[in-house]
Amino acid sequence: MTITTEAKVTIERKSMVKALEKINRVLANRGSKPVLQHVRMDAADGRLWLAGTDLELSLTVHLPAEGEMPRCLVPCRELLQRVKTGSNPVCSIWQEDEHLIVNGGNAHHRLAIMTPDEYPNIPLQPEGRMLSLPTGSFRESLQTALVGVARENTRYAINGVLLEVKAGRMHMVATDGRRMVVIEIGRPEASAQDMAVILPARLCQMIVRLTEQYEPGTLKLYVKENQDAKGEKSPSSLYVVGNGWVLHGMEIDGHFPCWRDVVPKNESKFMLDRQEFLTTVREVSTACASYSPGVQVRLATDQTTVTARSAENGESSGQVTSRFIGGGDSLILTGFNPQFLEDVLKTLTGKNVLIEVKQNTPATNGDIHQYPAVFYDWADRRVKWVVMPVGIHAKASPESLGSNYRDTPGAAA
To answer: Of 357, 299, 350, which Cα lies nearest the Cα of 323?
Structure first.
């Protein structure tokens, strides 16, 4: 086969490596169909187009290139390895006798290619309503939200992140049923319509990988509403357009919980040093039982005490300076999963954390009923966590019930 200028493509090698690494993150693992381990590529009009899919997500990347090349399928990992080990600043590729020839240094590499007819269809043109999102802050919000996403498959609708635009405000929400994070991500453009879409966790993770920390510019999210054969609403098609790439996936099917009803209207407010509280929780939680992890937290006017005890690991206790801000009782006895506390305190970034929690109430069996707590930065309240308590097995008493304690035979310990 004679190689012509039109059939040969020249491209900056490092840019090619970065593009292939992005595609490789989307591709299916080696146990899937062989065709899904290939990258689809072609070149025209001064651009090289690369595309890959695992049937759940698809990614298209384009970058400047000289020359043209017909569409073909190439093993992605093998191509990435050949281009990555090259020594020249530019890389040349062309097709010859059902092979792709790669020259990025002193060697020529031959890789077998497949016809593009065998590849799944990959949407290239975004459709639907568009929402502009600041890249850096949106990426940061996704990283926080992903901490709270459900990992179990039994509740499919919460295996993703809710993105909601309503009444001129934009929120991101994630929950696993035991904790929930609500992130206010600024105000949308004036022309943005109200909408609510559940972004799959894997699509969110891919956006984080495709972008960089503090990256300037904007991402464009397109949401194309779909209908089934009966005319009823079905999961929307999602397109995320970044700097030189288009990511496509489908919305999670189902109804996300009404998160505004979940955020409690709390009373008592306590302020603690975030890092000191985090360190204390980490140290004390070493005494937690493996079968029932939980630390008791005694929130008080000037000092908060964290305690853990178990038959197998003994007892540990630590104190953190706290300040009662007001709003209710100045002493609250509660408990939390220490891993949840760590996640909350690591995703918040301010110096001080504010904890809002309602006083316990008597339970019918002589125990106490505890309430969820809200955690947020004292200075920046855009990120709020709601964390369900764990039982501390405390009996009704002035210590555990505060102003809700009634000195009656049914309430006393």
So the answer is: 299
